[in-house]
Amino acid sequence: MTLAVSGSVLAPGPGPLRRHWPLLPLAATVLFLLAPLPAGDATASGKVGPADAASLVLALVCGVQALRGRVRTLTPLGVLVLGAPGVGLAVATMTAGDPYAALPGFVRYLQVFVLVPAAVVLLVRDAREFRLAAGCFVVLALVQGAVGVVQYATHTGASYQGEDVRAVGTFGPGDVMGMATVVAYGLVVATAAALAPGLPRRVRRTAGACALALVLPLVLSFSRGAWIATFGAAVLVMAMAGIRRALRVLVALAAAGVVLVGGLGLGSEMVAERLNSITQVSSAPDQSVTDRYTMWAAAESMWRERPAVGVGLKGFPAHRDGHSSLGLSSGSDTAGAGQAFVKQPLLSPHNMYLLILGEQGLVGLLALAGGWAALLVAGLRRCAVGSDGAVRDCGLIAVGLFVWQLTDFLYADIGGPSTVLTGVIIGLAAWWALPSGGPGDEVAASGRAGGAFAPVRGRTGDGSGPSGRNAAAACGPRAAEGPA
After folding, report:
1. Which of 188, 370, 384, 472 could form a disulfide with 478 if both were Cys (CB 3.0 to 4.6 A apart)?
2. What is the structure's pLDDT at 386?
3. What's the gap between Cα 109 and its chain centre?
4. Where are the domains of the chain?
5. 3-state secondary structure string, the chain?
6. Is residue 414 a contact partner of residue 112, using CB atoms and an 8 Å limit?
7. According to the model, what pLDDT value does residue 199 have?
8. Which residues in the chain land under pLDDT 50?
9. What was the pLDDT predicted at 81?
10. CB 416 within 8 A of CB 171
């Protein structure tokens, strides 16, 4: 049992469960994506999955803790970055042609881009809790990746080129990007942890092994977008960690790729064809690429029609045909992984920035993408100016995940059960990036990743050490706290 100082009397500190219980809904938000969904539910409109329910509990817990004065206090900058999207969403909903039809979109966007990120920023108190949240991504990725590898090996995955070999995990063929997304998240977290100088060697070696293991299911997902985003995020994390460390990881990943794809022949022909298709998107695009270009043009046309506020949330499907060329197909074919053949309708442009522009106009794009740009610049700046090696892993993880998400948004948008993780990632990025303006801030002096909050009021120390202020500083990004 740890000890906390209250005046001159030593009192037992709170146990781990009592200390970290507000993080349980956050862990559940990530880990509930392990639960398999019934066929056809992956992208069904209006479905609230277990992870979405957990995120609502997370927001509720944050509200209760806020009323009790047990959360961080956002600075004006934090309020602006995290709250501005809500204003843009409200404008897009009220100005939509059918505000009632736009209301479900308002609720979904509010959940993903406002409530969940704010709850993460307010409830995650220090580097230790940040690592707990990041570790959940690795656990999720390892389990989903293992399911995906089995699907490829046993030909029970989603249909790809006439064979049921595409690894989709428990997400099913209706959400072929689901497994690729969560595996990529886990790979980025594991890579950052493997390169972080402040972590114990045993932890870094374990993280490196996890990163190597996750390469295979990511390859077998046959997701070009996930490959590109993961490569970009991993290279950035390696560059921030140092050239020598980056070279070692690159050599290990290259060796793993040669053994798995070249030596063992795991999906080599399909992978080669998929890689070649990346360079053919302009010269000889396949139908999926043609559809994507057509929908991008449709979203741009919607924006030109209403440049300030767009056509309204959830308005893309209703306006798509009026702004699309005849080159658009009726939908994409999905089958396999326990599901019969289904024609999946094309209801979004598969580009988050163009989706925002078409449905919310410049007001929405400035509120959402403007905040993301601010978080990215601030996060990179914090990593560049240097921080304590004890918490540097948090910066590598936060920036790596955020860069992956922003890159993926170039050819994907929100949809499916894994969407809720986008809000968690934005929250982790904000936790790392935004400066603290409260008294007792020691971020600049100690390198602690304090985030955009002032000190917590009325909470005991967490057992990090025998004295109030020093105990709080010892465990990372935490302002000094007085006794409860």
Report:
1. 472
2. 62
3. 14
4. 15-282+346-474, 287-344
5. CCEEEECCEEEECCCHHHHHHHHHHHHHHHHHHHCCCCCCCCCCCCCCCHHHHHHHHHHHHHHHHHHCCCCCEECHHHHHHHHHHHHHHHHHHHCCCCHHHHHHHHHHHHHHHHHHHHHHHHHCCCHHHHHHHHHHHHHHHHHHHHHHHHHHHHCCCEEECCEEEECCHHHCHHHHHHHHHHHHHHHHHHHHHHHCCCCCHHHHHHHHHHHHHHHHHHHHCCCHHHHHHHHHHHHHHHHHHCHHHHHHHHHHHHHHHHHHHHHCCCCHHHHHHHHHHHCCCCCCCCHHHHHHHHHHHHHHHHHHHCCCCCCCCCCHHHHHHHHCCCCCCCCEEEEECCEEEEEECCCCCCCHHHHHHHHHHHHHHHHHHHHHHHHHHHHHHHHHHCCCCCCHHHHHHHHHHHHHHHHHCCCCCCCCCCHHHHHHHHHHHHHHHCCCCCCCCCHHHHCCCCCCEECCCCCCCCCCCCCHHHHHHHCCCCCCCCCC
6. yes
7. 87
8. 1-13, 41-45, 437-484
9. 92
10. yes
Query: Residue 313 and residue 22: Cα distance in Å, rounded?
Result: 32
**C-alpha 258: how far from chain center:** 29
**What pLDDT was estimated at residue 457?**
38
213-253 pLDDT per residue, tens: 999 999 898 888 899 999 999 989 988 888 777 777 777 76
Report the distance separating Cα 68 and Cα 16, nearest Å.
20
Tokens 């700046």 appear where? 381
| Whole-number Å distance between alpha carbons of 239 and 241 | 5
Write the pLDDT tens digit of every residue in 91-142.
Answer: 999 988 888 889 999 999 999 999 999 999 999 988 999 999 999 999 999 9
Q: What's the chain's length in residues? A: 484
What is the structure's pLDDT at 163?
83
Question: What tokens were used for 318?
Answer: 């209703």
Q: pTM here?
A: 0.83
At position 193, the amino acid (one-letter code) is: A
Task: Give which of 274, 276, 285 is closest to 224, Cα–Cα.
Answer: 274
pLDDT (0 to 100) of residue 351: 92
Q: What is the pLDDT of residue 461?
A: 36
In sequence order, the 6+-apart residues with CB closer than 8 A to the CB of 113 are 85, 89, 368, 422, 423, 426
